[in-house]
Amino acid sequence: MNLHQLRIFYTVAQCQSVGQAAKKLYISQPAVSQQLKQFESQYQVKLLQPQGRGIALTPLGTKVYEQAKLIFEQEAYLETILTAATPPLRLGGTALALEQLLSQSTVTWSRLKISRLNTQTLIDQMALQQLDLAVLPQAVTDPNYQRFALQPDQWIFVAAEGDPVTTVTRSQLVDLPLIIREVGSTTHQLLVDILGTRQLNQAIEVNDQATAIQLAKQQLGIYFCAAASVQAAIQAHDLKQVVVTDYQPQVRQLYLYERHAMAGSLIDQHLRQTLAL
């Protein structure tokens, strides 16, 4: 039996949603659907079925779920016993940065405690030395951390494929429907700097990347974001890049911060296998 597929099934059953399970597992929704299909096909059974806007367990699915629950509860108990004596490695980052950098093995590495926060909150936690590692799209100076440059990206504007807007200027953007991230995020501050104002007349503010992308796909506004976060949607022709004639796409540089007190400890042994650098 493929325990990875069993875990995916168990999480989907818990969430009663493929989309919510994908977020919880930190993998894409299509990948979750594909693994579920393969799991059912292997045994030629039906474990899940549509129910309204969500999904529900079949009678067989309920039996499998109950047994899977026992397996994963026992797994969690064993991990607690094995790791209780050693504190976890605390890694913080923006949701997009961690999505880009975390390898699949990270999800199951019990020694890692992951916090997905906006940039300002991460900086505040670093100032209090509450993080051992941090990944930020911003260069900050903190005497308690060593900084390393990671892979670059670009900041771009996107809209729904069917949106009539294809080319605009920065001044025109101010009066158009925009989808913006929350105050305190790097994305929000960069957009304000580019447009030269905080007075955005038709802005929808959201607290997470997934919601922003979904709103953009629904043609509710133009979204300013990292290119990596919308690459799949652009390739699927759900979104398109909007050309801003007086804006040159800026480089989005990611930085890894390592707390000096951690040097020579678990980081040296596990950093490169934990982060897909």
Automatic annotation (TrEMBL):
Origin species: Lactiplantibacillus mudanjiangensis
Regions crossing the membrane: none
Protein's UniProt keywords contain Amino-acid biosynthesis: no
UniProt-recorded name of the protein: LysR substrate binding domain protein [Lactobacillus reuteri]
Signal listed as a keyword: no
Similarity section: Belongs to the LysR transcriptional regulatory family.
Coiled-coil regions, chain positions: none
Domain HTH lysR-type, first and last residues per copy: 1-58
Keywords assigned: DNA-binding, Transcription, Transcription regulation
Pfam families attached to this UniProt entry: HTH_1 (PF00126), LysR_substrate (PF03466)
Molecular function terms from GO: DNA-binding transcription factor activity; transcription cis-regulatory region binding
Entries under InterPro entries matching the protein: LysR_HTH_N (IPR000847), LysR_subst-bd (IPR005119), WH-like_DNA-bd_sf (IPR036388), WH_DNA-bd_sf (IPR036390)
